Automatic annotation (TrEMBL):
Belongs to the YajC family. The lineage of its organism: Bacteria, Pseudomonadati, Bacteroidota, Cytophagia, Cytophagales. Keywords: Cell membrane, Membrane, Protein transport, Translocation, Transmembrane, Transmembrane helix, Transport. Pfam families: YajC (PF02699). The keyword Protease does not apply. PANTHER family: SEC TRANSLOCON ACCESSORY COMPLEX SUBUNIT YAJC (PTHR33909). The chain crosses the membrane at residues 6-30. This is Sec translocon accessory complex subunit YajC. It is found in: Cell membrane.
Length: 109
């Protein structure tokens, strides 16, 4: 039994350092870094919103952006029905302004 205790009291092995460092790097590249990229992309999208954009909120409400401030967005959801949202509540853009304008113009037959 004394020999087991003496063997366990040995010095620090290099592999004991490499494994936790490798786990930390894998965690960073597969979890932290992609989340930071998604957050940065979402922030850039919300800053690029413009009047006339067709958007969907986080709650699933579809509408047209009619007014913008630094913190809020006014969305028209139906004729005469306007709702004010924080910019952070905008999830995605449904279509670009040019696509929406082309869809509203009927094709000549």
């Amino acid at each position: 039994m004394l020999t087991l205790l003496l063997q366990a009291a040995g010095g620090l092995d290099v592999t004991q350092l490499i494994i936790p460092i490798a786990i930390g790097l894998v965690f960073y590249f597969f979890m932290v870094r992609p989340q930071q990229k998604r957050t940065a992309d979402a922030k850039a999208f919300r800053q690029s919103l413009a009047k006339g954009s067709r958007i969907v909120t986080i709650g699933g409400l579809h509408g047209l952006v009619v007014e913008l401030t630094d913190e809020t967005v006014v969305v028209e959801v139906d004729r005469g029905v306007k709702l004010r949202f924080d910019r952070s509540a905008i999830a995605r853009e449904v279509g670009s302004k040019t696509t929406a304008a082309a869809a509203e113009v009927p094709a000549a037959s």
